[in-house]
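Table S2 (text version). Query chain:
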Amino acid sequence: MDIPAYPDFRSLELGDKAFLDPLLIRLQPRISEFTFANLYLFRKAHLYRLCLVGDSPVVLGSGYGGEEYFLPPLDGDIVKALDALLGDGRLLYGADESFVERYLQGRERTEITEDRDSFDYLYLRRELAELPGNRFHKKRNRVRYFTGRHRHAVEPYSEKYLGGSLKLLEEWRRVRAGIESASLLREADASEEALSLAGLLGLQGLVVLVEGEVKAFVLGEKLNETTSVCQFEKADPFLEGLYQFADSEYCRLCFTDCEYVNREQDLGEPNLRRSKLSYHPVELVKKFRVRRAGQQLVG
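Corresponding structure-token output:
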């Protein structure tokens, strides 16, 4: 695998899956960014690039505001890689609590800041599948509203449903043109590629058919041995209760060997935060931004 030595780098490529997958499996990550599919599908949105810092493979990125950052080094001499990158004025993004405790706690001239907008929402998969008790009665009512009014079917996602899913995504874009944030529109672009490359990337999920047409799709993958991550979900906004139904069915039918499902971050979007909190997460997986104190950031 031809990976340039830092400070050179190259764009992330589909062929990097064979190299990165074993590292990520060994890492057993808790943060949603650390799957190959996520890195590859958001390579344009975040300008993800790959390099070697010493013997450590590192993914470099760029925030929506233009700041240059790097994700936690994946292997090798991690302390040496951190010294080099932080010393060059790069921001470390996506460090979880265990990474901070192991590699960053007590380091001199190091600023460590919680990044609340990037915390991942972790749920019990069975709870989202069954929606039990009083806490979820509003969600159950919405599911019943949908199922009681529409002839529907749930099918595993496959290439058979690519055309219908892309049509739904295009309608989603049309309805939301001019009202969604740049980050959510970039997520829609990643969704389009995810639908086309699901088989190659190892994504699994389902579609909800209403009167034979795709009206919702959900895609995800395994994050670690106990957790799946739900990465892409779109539904017809005019079918009340469909989002809640698709959520529940995904958790009921997909990755049933996992105890938890990670539903990623809210990016500071107020409506998205309210929605994610309303499903009663069992944990917010903290992420931290780290920089060298007094250092001018790149970007």
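Notes on Table S2: The first strand starts at residue 10 and ends at 11. The chain has ten helices and 14 strands.
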